[in-house]
Amino acid sequence: MSEEVESMSKVTMKDVASVMGVSVMTVSNAFNRPDQLSARLRTDILARAEKMGYAGPDAAARQLRAGRSNAYGVVFAERLSYAFDDPFSTAWLAAFAQVMEADGANLLLLSVPVGDTDALEALRHAAVDGVAAMCCDLPSIRQARQRRLPTVVCTKPSGAGSDLADVDHVVIDDHAAGRDVGAHLRALGHRDVVILVEFSYSQDGEGVERGPEAFGELLAHHDRAATYHDTWSRIRGIVDGLDSPTSTIVTAGVNSRESGRRAGGHVLDRQHRPTAVVAVSDVLALGFIDAMRHRGLEPGRDISVVGFDDLPMAADAGLTTIRQPIAEKGRLAAELLLDPARTPRQIVLPHELVVRASTQPAPH
What pLDDT, on a 0 to 100 scale, did the predictor assign at position 206? Predict the structure, then answer.
C-alpha cells in the first residue's frame, strides 16, 4: 500500500494494522491502552494512522458497544426555547450542567409536549444514559422507565400517580408551600382571591376564568388524576390554606411575564376586582404587577400579589413569594443520575414564605 495518505475510501483500524504488520488489537491498544505497547511502537502506529487519515476508533460506536452514550436527557413539556427564556429553567439547568460537566457528561434537551406522540417516540430512541424531568407529563416518565433508564423528576407525583411513587425525585412540598401562601393571605383578611395558572396545565385557553363551583370541580378532577405537574399541588395547597369558597382561577397562557400582563388586564378590567392574586410562578406575578402599575395601581396597597420561586427580580419588585432552592434542585438531580448508589433517592428540600411589600391586609 502506498505511503501517501489514503483518500479512496474510509480507512479502518484493520487497514492500519495491515500496513504496520501488527494485529488489530495492537493498533487498538495504541489508541486506547498505551501502557500495553512500547513508546516507540505506539509512536510509529499513531504516525502511520495519521498519515493514512485514520483518526482513531469511532467514539459513538465504542459507546454503543459499551451500552452507554455518556449523555443525559432533560425533558420539558414546553418548546425547547422555553428552557432558555424562563429564569427558573435557566438557573436549574446551569446547576445541572455544572455537575454533568465536572463528570465529563453531556446534555440532550428533549421537548416532549403533552400529547405529542412523535416527541414521545423520539424520547424512546434518544441516545441517553438517564433522564431528568424538569416539567413533563406521565407518559414521558413511563417511557423512560420502560427503557430502564435512571430517571429523576423535579415534581413529586400526586393524585393517581401512585404506580410511579417510587421514582427518584428532588422536590419541595408544593402543597405545603401553597398552604403557607393561602394561610398568609387568610391571616391578612383576604377571601376573594384569584389564582393565575399556566394554560399548559389545563384544557382552558388563555384568559379563561373559572368561578368557585367550576374551579372546585377542576380541583377535584386533578386530585383524582395522575400528574407530575407541581401547579395543581400548589393550587390545592393555596385553597386549603385560604379555607375560602370564593377563590377563582384564571388561565394566563404560557409561563411568561407577558402572559402575566395579559391575564392581569383580564382580571383588573373586570367589574369586580379581587383583593389578592396568587400566581403559580414569579414571572406570572411580575407580569401581573406590570399590568397593575400600567393602571396606576400598587401591589399591596390596592391588590396583594404573591408568586412562587423567589427569582432574583422578585426582591427588586417587593414580591411576596415562596423561596425554593432552584440551583440545589438541579445539582442534586444530576448527582442522582450520575451516582446510582447515592442516597437518599427521594429528596424533599425546604421552602420558605418570603413576605415583602406586595401583600398587605385586605381592605375593609
Answer: 56
Residue in this structure with the C-alpha cell 410562578, named with its chain if needed: 281
pTM of the model: 0.79
Nearest-angstrom CA–CA distance, 107 and 101: 9
Q: Is the pLDDT of residue 327 over 70?
A: yes
Answer for the pair 123, 72: CB distance below 8 angstroms, yes or no: no
Residue 196 phi/psi, 5° resolution? -95, 130
Q: How far is CA 154 from the centre of its chain?
A: 7
pLDDT-based confidence at 212, cuts 50/70/90?
low
Do 341 and 163 touch, CB atoms closer than 8 A?
Answer: no
208 pLDDT band, cuts 50/70/90, is: low
